[in-house]
Structures are given as structure tokens and as C-alpha cells.
Amino acid sequence: MCSAVTLALEQVKAQGRSKIHRIDLSVGELSGVVPDALMFAFDVVSAGTPAEGANLHLTTVPTLCYCAHCHREFYPMSLIYACPHCHHLSNDIREGKDLELVSLEIS
Amino acid sequence: MCELAGHREILYLHQNVLKKNNQSAEKNRTLFRNLLAINLMSAPGAGKTTLIQQLIKHTHFRSAVVVGDLATDHDAQQIRQTEIPAVQVTTGNLCHLDAENVARAVGELELATLELVIIENVGNLVCPAMYHLGEDLRIVLMSVTEGENKSLKYPTLFKSADAVVISKTDLAAAVDFDREKALAYLSQVVPQTPVFEISARSAKGIDAFHAYLAQALEAKRLLRSLSI
């Protein structure tokens, strides 16, 4: 959370602005980020900064796997990444690992 | 200063929040180019320090250890008893090592003389998954005393691992550890990841793990010699 807010504050400063109204983050299911914990941490970390009171919007990015056996991508139904077409297990993760700062609304 | 001041504007960034850490991790990768760096992760008390001590006793690698803890340098002191250089990183309230504090710590080591750098992460099965340190291998430990289902409970960390170690196998009978069940869960959550079963107390299983690391070091050297 510190990294996300630091990044946002750097941006608002670089733009010569003083207030962040809204922060959009995309959170990969496998990023290790827990949305509730992130929301909670945001209030603490942003207090007294231009990001204080901003609306924090999180979009979850689901895990996307690639099946090396039938060469198809699939969204696993559980933490066991079994291909729904051929039932082989995959550990090739194509999406869902990142935490991305998508956009900021500033003034 | 800015005529838009006061007007709201949307700034599209699409920036990876962990970019800074990933960039530092790449720098560490360069520092580690002639040696093997491993990142050891587990819950607190799974036996990382004891495994490292045993590994050092059984190995001919020229090694050094970076130890991360919230407080104290007990683990580093314990490792120094093996006469191996150990650098303690005290993270304060930070629940994981990041690439920058690892870079600072390895600055205290004579990397050119080393073959193996073991990074003992802060005991935590959540946050270390997000932070790459520039390591070659990510190794997750689970001790038999923690039960069979660790991999189901913390799949993100296990899925980020190159190898899994089941530690304290000498205690398996005392805690009714169901080995088959643990291996079955692992084969579902991390189907292609090698698993090593080790008792650091008796050294049982340490040879196979040692051979795995030796092979990884050999492979890295070979790749490096081919790319020059």
C-alpha cells in the first residue's frame, strides 16, 4: 500500500497539483494483496497527504492460466489450476500477478 | 502556475506498483551473476535457520547468508557459529525483505569470492510472495508440525516457489503428520515443483537438496559461459 500511495503522490507532485480525488488500482488475484487490508491501510498511509480522503477503487484481475497440453488459456475454478478442457494441471500463470496503478483523478 | 489548477483531471498511468522493487531486483540479479542466490521463505519457526546451518555443514560451496527478521540478530549470530559470513537485516515493522534492503545487505559481502548466497526471508507466508529479490531460486519451507495443508492455505506463495522443502521430518510421527496427504495437496497446488523432505536435525534428505542446488549453480554457470 505504501508503494501505491508513494507512486500516486509522486505523480501528483510531478504534475504540479495538490489533491488526489480518486485512485484506481487493479489488483491481481495472485498479487498477494488482500483488498480489505489494502482499503484499511490506505486510510492510514494517506492521512495528511494530498491523497487523504480520496476514493480508492479496486478492480480484481482474475488468474489466467495457460494449458501446455491443449494450448488454451483458462480461468481456474479453484486454487488447483486444472484445465477445464483436458484436466491437466497448469502452473503457467499469464495474468493475475500484478498490482497496477491504473489512473488518478487529480486537481 | 497551471491554468488547469482547480480543475479535475484524470491521469492514466498503468504503472506497476512493484516496478521499483522489480528494478532493484534486476540490479541484484546482476550482482548475483556469478553465484547462486536462493530466497528461503516460510512461516515463523519452520526451521529456516537450522536448515541453513545444516546445509552449510554439508556443503563445499563458498556461502554467505542474509537474514531478515523484524528484530534481533539471533539468527545471524547462530549462523556465524558455522564461520560463514552472515548479514542481519532488521526490517522493523516490515513483514518481508525487499530488493533494496537485500542490495544494501549484500554490499557488506565479498560477492566475488562466493558461490552461494542464501537469503533467509522474514517468517511470513503472505507478503514475500510479491517481492522478488533478484534470486535464482525461491524455496518455500513447511514443517511437519504445521500440518499437511499449508499449500492449500497459502497457495500464492507456494505457486511462486521453484522448490518446496518439508522440514522437521524427524517429528512427523510425533505430530501425526500424514505425508501422503501433504504430498497430494502439493501435487495439486504446485504440480511441477520439486519437493524435498528434510530433517535438519539428523541431516536426512539434505544430500538431495544439496545436489539440487549444485545442479542449479552448474546450470547457471553453463548458461553464463554460453552467453559470453
Order of secondary-structure elements of chain A: HEHEEEEE
Q: What is the tally of beta strands of chain A?
A: 6
Any idea what the radius of gyration of chain B is? 19 Å
Approximately what portion of the residues of chain B adopt beta-strand conformation?
15-25%
Alpha-carbon distance between the two ends of chain A: 22 Å
**Number of DSSP strands of chain B?**
8
Average pLDDT for all residues of chain B: 92
Roughly how much helix do the residues of chain B carry, as a percent range? Answer: 25-40%
Task: State the name of the first-level CATH class of chain B.
Answer: Alpha Beta
CATH architecture identity of chain B: 3-Layer(aba) Sandwich
Question: Average pLDDT value of chain A?
Answer: 91
The name CATH uses for the topology of chain B is Rossmann fold
Strand residues, percent of chain A: 25-35%
From the spread of the alpha carbons, the general shape of chain A counts as elongated
Name the biggest interface.
A-B, 29 and 33 residues
Q: Span between N and C termini of chain B? A: 52 Å
Q: Structural class, from helix and strand content of chain B?
A: alpha/beta
CATH architecture of the domain at 2-63 and 95-106 in chain A: 2-Layer Sandwich
Approximate helicity band of chain A:
10-25%
Biggest sheet character of chain A: 3 strands, mixed
The shape of chain B, in one word, is globular
